[in-house]
What we know:
Blueprint: H1 3-14, H2 24-40, H3 45-59, H4 70-85, E1 100-106, H5 112-127, E2 131-136, H6 143-154, E3 158-159, H7 167-181, E4 185-190, H8 198-211, E5 215-221, H9 226-239, E6 243-247, H10 256-265, E7 269-273, E8 281-283, H11 286-293, H12 299-308, H13 312-323, H14 329-341, H15 345-350, H16 355-358, H17 370-377, H18 381-385, H19 392-402, H20 406-427, H21 438-450
Parallel strand pairs: 1-4, 1-5, 2-3, 2-4, 5-6, 6-7
Antiparallel strand pairs: 7-8
Helix pairs in contact: 1-2, 2-3, 3-4, 4-11, 5-6, 7-8, 9-10, 17-19, 19-20, 20-21
Amino acid sequence: MFDNLTExxxxxxxxxxxxxxxxxxxxxxxxxxxxxxxxxADVNYKIAKSFTDxxxxxxxxxxxxxxxxxxxxxxxxxxxxxxTLMGGEAEDINISGNPAVILVAGLQGxxxxxxSAKLAKYLKSKKGKQPLLAACDIYRPAAIDQLxxxxxxxxxxxxxxxxxxxxxxxxxxxxxxxxxxxNNLVIIDTAGRLAIDEQMMNEIASVKKAxxxxxxxxxxxxxxxxxxVNTAKEFNERLDFxxxxxxxxxxxxxxxxxxxxxxxxxxxxxFIGTGERLDAIELFHPGRMASRILGMGDIVTLVxxxxxxxxxxxxxxLHKKIAKNQFNFNDFIQQINQIKKMGNLRDLAGMxxxxxxxxxxxxxxxxxxxxxxxxxxxMTPEERETPSLLSGSRRKRIAEGSGTTIQEVNRLVKQFxxxxxMMKMMTGGKGKGKGANLSxxxxxxxxxxKK
Length: 451
């Protein structure tokens, strides 16, 4: 996400020369390039100009300490202003009430139904809620079927009434049903249209009046750029929603919607969708997003994701094995699976300062480790447990079984041995220390799959 904007901003900072003081003369060209980069990212020109004017006001006359270059000082100021532009602080969702009611609205194709399921899974796992999904989109073909499938995949029940053609009545009945079944949260998936029309607006307003939701979320496809901002403005005038959800942010290299929408509707971005997986949803943190946009990574989010997959008991066992040089292919594939659960590999790499840029042109999709996994799974249980058994004839058999070459198998075994030695060195060989950190493990794995 934001690749184009990040690249242009980095270029603009390099233009700032001189030392000692940021002045109107030496900052003028840099600010011009920053404004141009924002407009190219589909940020409204007035917002882009207001942003650079604010940066200029903050930067002018700033003393630059001897250890910091003017460009670095400006990066800090831009980072603070980007954070402010996107809302300053993260704002969580309101899930008070029994049941709590969340109304999800937006245009057709924005990803409302998928987001509703993602949100249900998120609140079930993170907040301990017992959600119910309500299918109130009675127009789009197979919308109810889609929600039922997603509900099954997330383990969340879905309330449907295929005979009823009144979305408000379905919404009210779903809340009654939730109370009877002991569900303390209802997420209402409403109908969208290909464009804003009066009938749709009246209908969604009617649903709102009928169930009086504690939270209304407007879902918008971030790749529609400035159109997304304009749509949000019209919806807000009718619905007075509580927050915005930006979907498909992983496919948007510009990022204009994320930067503009808060300024236009004065409502916080609450969640972002970062992929197709049902766990690819994040609470929106303006400060962390500003750091990502400026190419500085997002270690906090990376650590949070790692902690979600962290099992202290298993970690201790693994640490002892590494210290005794007993780390094997079973352990290795387990670590791969944990990293895969954390999300898209390119997205994870982008959270490590400097790594995302270094790996920019590499193919890092969700199947990045497919070849490695095929080789390991073609080994016998004994070979996975004791890598030293891998003789030439065994490696030939593994290559044939995994659909790879003997060279690829040899390369994997060699890289695995090197990684195992490095991990042992990091523990001090005595079971002390913290072992390999996530960024190093990811780096090793990426090296293994690309060489």
